[in-house]
Amino acid sequence: MQREQAALDDAGVQILAISTDNLNGPAGLYEQQGYEFPVLFTALDTSIPEQYGVFNLFGDGLASASVFLIDTNGEIVWKSVGLNYTHQVEASEIIEQVEKLK
What we know:
The protein is an alpha+beta fold. Helix content is 29%, strand content 17%. It has one domain: 3-Layer(aba) Sandwich (Glutaredoxin). GO terms for molecular function: antioxidant activity; oxidoreductase activity.
């Protein structure tokens, strides 16, 4: 997502990443990668991915990598739920979906 930040910004997309990882490990990784979007660390609390229905889908005790487009009213208008925790959606697909919703 970081590589496509400018295109996502131009499309009006705001990114918020949510991670259930422990702060001691991934926080440094996010800093090293130079991410410019906010990352919410839930410190192993799985309640957010559970509420979005993306936790433990495959019996692995992990949140699937997922993308949700949420409109200004707080409604989910599109989602992509990954096949596992490593699945990534291309920024171009997100932008395409945003354009369809306009």
